Amino acid sequence: MKERIVLGLGDNVDYEIVWDSATIERLVVDHGIRSEDLSTDVAVDSERNLLCSLLAFLRDGVGGERWVASSELIERFADRFDKEITLGGTGVRCALAMDKLGVGSTVHLVSIDDHVRRLLPASVSSVCSAERDSLDPHLIVQYVAGVRIRANDLDLCAPHSNRIIYVHDPPNRELRLHPQLGDVLSNAEIFLVSGFNSIQEPEALAVRLEELRAHMRRLPESALVFYEDAGFHQPVLRRVVHDALGDLFTVLSMNEDEMQGYLGRQVDLLDSADVARALRDLRTIVPGRTLVVHTTYWSVAVGESAPGFRAALCGGVTMASARYLFGDDADADRYRAVQRYPVHQQGAAVVHALEAGLGPAACGVPAFQLTTPYPTTIGLGDAFVGGFLAALAQR
């Protein structure tokens, strides 16, 4: 079973800090931060600028990912808070989600240390391109709707729950591939491609894409290739990935933020006409035989094979919902319990309208109606992919 599902391409250790408004307010005062200093685009090269970035995201109620000048800066900031050490990277989080349903996999790693060895389940095998141990943690900051920061002239209240990721991660920036990856792929039925968003140099990306394409020649002809999009550190490089590998993608998947980034406009996710226009436009922009978009209110597949992915969409939505409610404590019992939750009625109306308007080329499922005072906002897309691929593996 493990060799049937190969999940790539990067991995990392996450420091998930526990939100503490008092600590952040004290740091705002210590660093003399005022409202005009807040910006999501500031270079994160100091603790002060990290705070200016973080508070700008909180002010707007949005999430994002930003490159940090050093791992030492992340370590120093994280030490001010209680934290949990977990594993990250789309492939690894996907594997962890699948493990909860008894589905094994093989992950491709680019870094390794004792945290990875300790936290990777026995059901998950791995190949690793790293030649030595290293630790470059990602800082994960989650905040819930309504959290407030009052210091100096700041009076911020988060309008939505969300998360921000701060990274300084040379192994993922290089994304070196294991020389025997092709051998691993030779028996694969499902191959997840992700992680290219971390590469920032066009020359390095071109080399990795050429190497991966060569490895992928070993895939069985019937293998399903699932590409999960992400927030690119250098957005212009997204098109380079599509041009190099797009003809190999069976499914290209993304969330609402990535969809809106492609379109260059906001989309009203509860307006079926606006969503239909967005999906039609998106199909002209991105490659892949089937497009999947997963959002807060609904998830949809568009393409000739879309109806065949209904059960997978249900699996993805259910797994992401279980993670939203229960975090790392989500398990098979809670996964099944979520299936009994009521669906989001407005999301269901959008799905019905899309299927009626787009015909057999569209298939969708609504999200569940979820309420919790402490939602998990990190790894929801990864959990969706894990649930989606687990459903495909179990059919």
From TrEMBL:
A GO MF term: metal ion binding
Keyword Cytoplasm attributed: yes
Keywords linked to the UniProt accession: Cytoplasm, Glycolysis, Kinase, Magnesium, Metal-binding, Transferase
One of the Pfam families matching this protein, by short name: ADP_PFK_GK
UniProt superkingdom: Bacteria
Gene3D superfamilies the record matches: 3.40.1190.20
Coiled coil ranges: none
Claim: DNA-binding is one of the keywords in the record: no
InterPro entries: ADP_PFK/GK, Ribokinase-like
GO biological process: glucose metabolic process; glycolytic process
Protein name: ADP-dependent phosphofructokinase/glucokinase
